[in-house]
Amino acid sequence: MKKICFTGGGSSGHVTPNLAIIKQLQEKNIEVFYIGSYKGIEKELVEKEKILFFAISSGKLRRYFSWENFIDPFKILKGVIQAYFKLNKLKPSVVFSKGGFVTFPVALAAKVLKIPVVVHESDFIPGLANKLVFPLADKICVTFDATGKNIKYKNKIIVTGSPIRKDFFSGDKEKALKLFNLDSSKRTILVIGGGLGSTIINQVVTEILPQLLTSFNVIHLTGKGKLTETLIKEKNYVQIEYMHEELFDVMALADLVISRAGSNSLYELILLKKKHILIPLSKKASRGDQIDNAKFFEAKNLSYVIQEEALKKELLLKTIDTVYQQQIEYEQRLANYHCPNGTEEIAKILQVYL
Three-state DSSP class for 270? Predict the structure, then answer.
């Protein structure tokens, strides 16, 4: 049987898109396996789905001084050797790389073995790990058409969109209403602060909660360790650290989503035609990729954006009010905007190599 090797890790944003594609391929009885790092979140997420997983050594290239910069090249070399032997033994027809520093050793080993490599870049501006993989890749899939101007390998680029889990399209809003005992006569706001949650978003949402609950149900994903005990029993308000399968039903129910601007989450909102307000992670805590992602869709009048430094309760309330004042026009713009289903597009590309 033909095999495909998947790699990517370090954050859930590099893993869940892989899982979406894997599920699509498994429905076609295509065999897959996964190579990730020892310590990344990918091991837990992949093994939970009963997918064959192998861990290798990986390093990190930092743009700042650290003594680990002198050690990590040896970790990377070890990872290349480990990946080489694993790929040579299992002999996949193609390697799909999603991002994170674990992907470079895998892609380099694949190149040595003459195994084709397909890489996907989620963000508007490519990250460092993917920049290292681009020269080794046969195809470079991108979420945004404008990303191509930031990549010099123009002949390799294919605009595919971002991989989205199929379950998002079959969410049951009635199931979510019953699960959390919410008021079916009210619209629902979903607040997502990213995988680790956002202290500032949590704080501002908490401050405006009395005003919101007069008109809305509020489902608030706070992030791990960020629950506010005093608010948990508030009527028509749900506070939870993180969601798994129930997120699909909650997303179906949500009338408005307040979210960070990670490329995967943002693309899900656009593809699902959900009204949304983005609060991208600031450059103080990131390389600014979320800001670039948000600007791209704000320029197309598809996203309302509040920069983190400007986030205050008055501005958030005003922006929510603006969304609903312009609701008809906004929903029309979302409905008319076409974006490809990355899961299907990438699965087709990978199957060409089988």
Answer: helix
